[in-house]
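From the shared-data thread, chain only:
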Amino acid sequence: MRRVHWSPLALILLASCPPSAWASVPDVAAPDCSAADLDVSYQFVNKSANEQVIVNFRNISQRPCTLRPGAGVSFADLRHGHSISTKECQNCDADGRANRWDPITVAVGATAYLVVSWEAAPVDGSGSCQEGGELNSYVNSDLKHGYSIWSRRLLRDVCSVVRFDSYFPGAFGEVNEQLGNDAQRKASVTINLTPSGEVYYADDSFWLYADISDPDEVLPPGEHSCPALLLRTRASDGTAVLEDADGRCRITPAGERPGRLIRFEMSTRWEGALATRDEIRVELLALLGSSHAAQVEMASSNALTLHAVTSASLPRRWGPEVKGLAVSLSLDKETYVLGEDIPLRLAVENFSATADIVSGELPCSAGLTFDVRDSSGRAVQTPGNLPCRGHGWSQDYPRGKIVPVMGLTLEGQGGLPDQPGDYTVTAAWEARGQTNWETSVGPAVSAPPSMPQPPYAVVHSAQITFHVVRRLN
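Structure, as tokens:
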């Protein structure tokens, strides 16, 4: 039998697992685990300046699979967006000597884990630290097991050699006796996560909403009245990411009940792991205390499965054609909760215009406006907050090509209703052509500064009806 050298940390970790949870090396080797075979979760343990990140792997496939040595992690400075150089020691003993480690096979439904640890302050006042915040997995330079953590809240600076100890059978079993009330605090916080629509457009406006009930007011407030929130995602290929969730919150008293209610809204467009083109599972986590606690505790929401598509696959609802141009406008659903932003699914097409249609950069400088009216015909006007950070580009509209206009919402356009009721919305496009000022005997000339250039055509979408309610039944 080959002798295995156990590091002190490995012996402590193995001692915390019951023998019944162990997975042993089989007589016939199982295939290697891929990211798609595994469901990943995380634990965070802090002992003074020492930080430990535990990554748990549960085999959700239909067969046993094998985890082999050779995996590792890389770090990056999330604040400034660049990689940092760290020294890693895998399965090392107290003297810093790496030990040989056997593969382990994980049975169907069973769990294994690894531990990444480092010092977050200079040891004995010597050495220097590197700003961190991002941890990514690799297996022989390949993200084979596909897990990443992008969180300035959870990952502190790296001030030492990084220990990477893997893989251990069973579940990480360390329990801190000082956290006896955490289970009760965790149970008191409930998070209900909902999407802005049934279809997830990864390249267009899409919102995640969370209604957080905090009856005991245990969630510490963070920036902009939001508690510390994180998003855990898993793509269909198994790629798993835990990242800080940024958005906006509204806090209201819980009425007759004790505590408070928190409404969290997060725009997902181009947001981290949500910039996907595939199916993705999403959960929202709330920190119950300090991110540097001895053992970090979190409350979790329900899980959503989002089926991502691109806006190119969106069914179009064209309004009347004017001079060869048309506008398509649709909404994701008919009923919205008061205060919920409403993404606008918009596209324009040049079917047969006689001019070359051009505009400024989409979406802000294309000549698009929106008319929102209540059931009495009164216009809805609220302060808009559409960020128009363009580059000065121009947009062409070739004949026969649908041009999606993405990133627009009613709130951004200053038309989000602030009262329950029935409403309509219509889009208008002032399309301009390069031949607007072309003379009958010569080439196109610039319009005199004192004479505004008229549009080639003003095109309207079909009128869309929607409803706003205080809450869904």
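The mean pLDDT is 81.
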